[in-house]
Design a protein that fits this description.
heterodimer; A: about 375 residues; alpha+beta; six-stranded antiparallel sheet; 15 helices; 13 strands; about 15% strand; B: about 140 residues; mainly alpha; about 60% helix; about 0% strand; globular
Chain lengths: ~375, ~140
Amino acid sequence: MKQLLDSDLELVVESDFIYMPLLFDPEIERETQRLEPGKPFKNPVKYKQKSVIKLEDKHFVKALNIHSFIDNYEAIDAYSYQRMRNECLRRYQLVRGIDEQFLDETLRTILFRIMPYFIRKNKEFSRKKVSDAEILDLVGEKINIPAKYYEEAKTFQDLEPLKEILKDLEHQNSIFKLPENGLYSARKLRNWFHKAINAKVLASEHHRIARSLQIREQFRQAKPAHIAVLLYIADRGAMEIDGFGFTMNNAYKGDYIVYKRTGDYVLKDYYARSYLFPDCRVAISTYSPYRPFVIEKYKHPFLMGHKTGQEICMKDFVPPNELTAESVIRTLEEGLTAMRYGYNGRKRNGYHSLDKTWVHIPTIDFEDYRI
Amino acid sequence: MDLLKDIKHKRAKQRQKKPIKRDAFNQISGLVRQCGLEKSFLDALDKVGDYLATKNLKFARIRLKVPVESPLFSLVTKEEYFLTMSIIKKVDCPYLRFAHSPEEVLLCKPLYRLNPSLAPERLMRYHFETLLLHERTKIKNNE
């Protein structure tokens, strides 16, 4: 069917049916000659039951019921239907669950309560407690937000199209108008068909539209630039400013990994020789256990091996029972402190010693970090 | 043979599988579609004599047919249908259903004129040009 709609054929719509151009062989030609000649086409009652009709000296054969085709299109061509559905939802910013992310408490905690702590040492945050709007302004300044998010922000704040759709759905108006009887080019019919599928998709998303509308009402007064920042974050699921950042946890939907970079730092061994450690990200997952770990492949006296995602060894650390902004800040701070200042060269604490000894099994070597 | 046996015999005969024979319509409509033949081909059919005169036919080697997959039951658009029927009407020759290319459609009539009783196996295997040259050579030798 898709091939037919993409072709340059002429199709006929008559009494809710699509008629295709009739193909011929000698027997079919004989049959068409037996059809009633000379009857005007615009007489739907007369031609209602006909399987072959003649229009402008061309024969057309009854092929598809339009209602049936629209209703079953999801089963007929699942891939194409999904593509059209996504396109339709994207047009109204209903895709990717953006509205839900706007109200996601975890994301709001990270963005408005944890992030200011780690970037407050900047000049503009030194004196007073920052508001949510100021934080969004700062993010907008620090991150180059692509122009498309500003465009999407305008669509997001324009509630009229969604209101109209909802009104139609609630008044149970017909979701699409059938094309009038007559001859159509396949392209024209395809455009109509796309509109009908869009209308069907929107009807099936009735509840989502209502919920989105409710959420968007709350953000109606917000600056478009702030909406653009939130859309960018919701879309990317990750952000980093001044060494502090977060990224969506791929393993657990709706959870994030919050991290802070250590920067380069120096540790000293038993003989006071210096070792320069490269930058790494100390992180905590919003999905328990709330223990600090290093995201990168890394080696350190407090890490068991030389691989990614290792928990930091901290003797007296008790992980928090629940996730709050304060607990995340404390855990990250403790992880960073342990990495940067926790190692005592005289005590050689941790899994490994920086200098080679007979006591420690020499699994991890730090000679390459020595300066 | 009594009536009962006669009826049984007739019914058994009816039930027998009959191989589908390709007819001229399926063959030619397949060619019209595959080779994109147009109405100008009908003019070419009128000038077969000129075509044979201009074409340098030499019995250098035996030409075999180009394999063509034509549909068993062909359905074509109205324009293609009328072109196919015009070709069939114009050529009007039993060899037409063995033609595998437009060139063979052109040679159908001259070949039939030279020898109207060629075996289907030969028509299916050899290009009409080869058969035409063969028939011409035969006639020359007889003279």
